[in-house]
Amino acid sequence: MRIYGDSNSGNCLKVKWVCDKLAVLYEWIEIDTRKGETRTPQFLQMNGAGQVPTVAFDDGRTLAQSNAIIRYLARDSALIPGDAFTAAKMDEWLFWEQYSHEPYIAVCRFQLVYLGKDASELDPEKVKRGYAALDRMEQHLAANRFFAGDDVSLADVSLLAYTRVAHEGGFDLGRYAAIRRWIGEAETFLGLPKVR
């Protein structure tokens, strides 16, 4: 199995983390999206959307979209709750992450870290909505250890990817004690180094 990914992308790292946690063998192929490497005819044949991560399986099939990939790779594992309703709650958070979290937290980070913008240049609406996402997470985690059930699930993996580096997008995690506690526990579970 080959994972085409950008090591700077939380969406790509989700796939790597799940594979590492579940001891799934893979070859990582680094793709530089800023150099147009997802726009080559060869890449577009694998993924017509021209996005990473993309996984190519040994039988020739390919799969894209980070949460779809991790959902497939983790099937029949403890990262997906056994209870159907709890698994659906996990999926609820997976969809929410891509619609209400990543477009704000990750985009602000990309603009500051990779485009070299100053925090004053960030779209105030993106910052506002990023903080709204963090507020929702904090509220949930103040009453729950993880996002779906009593153990780490794919919801935690997915939300961890950009939340743990939210400060790089100008977001202050200082007021989010429950999020900081959760980040530490999820990083430990996945065997990740602590983010500075």
Automatic annotation (TrEMBL):
Q: Which CDD domains match?
A: GST_N_4
- Whether Transferase counts among this entry's keywords is yes
* InterPro entries membership: Glutathione-S-Trfase_C-like (IPR010987), Glutathione-S-Trfase_C_sf (IPR036282), Glutathione_S-Trfase (IPR040079), Glutathione_S-Trfase_N (IPR004045), Thioredoxin-like_sf (IPR036249)
Tell me the ranges covered by the GST N-terminal domain, including all copies.
Answer: 1-81
Where the record annotates domain GST C-terminal, the positions are: 83-196
Q: Which GO terms describe its biological process?
A: glutathione metabolic process
Q: Which PROSITE patterns does the record cross-reference, listed alphabetically?
A: GST_CTER, GST_NTER
- GO MF, any single term: glutathione transferase activity
Name a Pfam family for this protein: GST_N_2
Q: Which UniProt keywords apply?
A: Transferase
Q: Which Gene3D superfamilies match?
A: 1.20.1050.10, Glutaredoxin
Transferase as a keyword of this entry, yes or no, is yes
Subunit structure, briefly? Answer: Homodimer.
Quote the protein name from its UniProt record. Answer: Glutathione S-transferase
What does UniProt list as this organism's lineage? Answer: Bacteria, Pseudomonadati, Pseudomonadota, Alphaproteobacteria, Hyphomicrobiales
